[in-house]
Amino acid sequence: MFNILTYNTISRAGLDKFPSFDYEVAAQIDNPDAILLRSFNLHDQPIPESLKAVGRAGTGVNNIPVEEYTKRGIPVFNAPGANSNAVAELTIGGMLLASRNLPAALNFVRSLAGDEESINSQVEKNKKQFAGFELSGKTLGVLGLGAIGVKVANYADGLGLNVLGFDPFMSLQNAWKLTSSAVPTNSIKDLLAAADFISLHVPLNHQTQNLINETHINQIKKGATLLNLSRGGVVDEAAVLAALDSGALHAYVCDFPSPALLNHPRVIVLPHLGASTEEAEDNCAAMVAEQVREFLEHGVIRNSVNFPDVIPNHSEEGVRLAIANKNIPNVLGQISSALGEAGLNIIDMLNRSRGDFAYTLVNVNTKVPQGILERIKSIDGVLSTRVI
Q1: What is the pTM of this model?
Q2: Which CATH architecture has domain 1-83+276-306?
Q3: Would you state the pLDDT for residue 316?
Q4: What CATH number labels 84-269?
């Protein structure tokens, strides 16, 4: 029986992935084997000794102390691409909001009062101030061509925009999905200088913090619109506001409210709606639940942010050990020696590394004595060990 602790409300599409005869799932539970959450902040929460995995029903993991979990050999799973359609559609919506001045127009309509004749007169007198421009024929620059960025590019191509893209780390899988009309740029600078709309779809990390800073904003084509449905921290807000005030930027559309952005006439700020659709919440919950279950039952790692993908066949032959360790010399050798000295035959072994950490699955021919497990756990560099 596995115990799953949930923070936030997790969609039934995810919870139903855990069969009741093998899993207990609750918001309050002792000795959890795994945690499922959305936006709950785990940074101040103690790490249970029983914990084996964390599943984030979404993409970003800034609310999770990933480094601390990594040191314990605990993989953190997320759901890349599961909310991509929701965020991509909202990005297109943001472009329309900015290009047609819709927020200001809606606010004007809400202020109308009087009889029908008076309202019609006010509309005719004032509508010119909300005149905008069409998307077709304009140029969209997409910075970050992951699952979301590719969909944004493809949708924009269908609306008649010219599409530029920049992503030096683009996967082959996403490259296959990208419209053939998209034109790659050699640098962020080239993209910013040519685009009427710039849409950001990058993760927030040490490399992307304030990625769009004063230097980059000064390179943006005059009168362009900047869209950020990625993370608030990838943009230097002060530099954006200065560009808006000077007229260098037409508008800033983002999904992350802050005191500095509220009530600025050229800022369209949304209440973090990117993945807030029923479909996205279902997709994210189902995807991460399947990954957590696969890990608990078979030791498989798929879409972890801190450990490599390790996807063996699901052979039930023998007994499987799952070992997380630092990626340092001779750890595998010591594991193999410990098993061999105990008379255990290795049927299959799969090892993968990712940066400073690695993960190994070992199938042996018979039950592993507790003493051997303890010996493996004591090997320098081994972070966690369990029998599947």
Answers
A1: 0.84
A2: 3-Layer(aba) Sandwich (3.40)
A3: 67
A4: 3.40.50.720
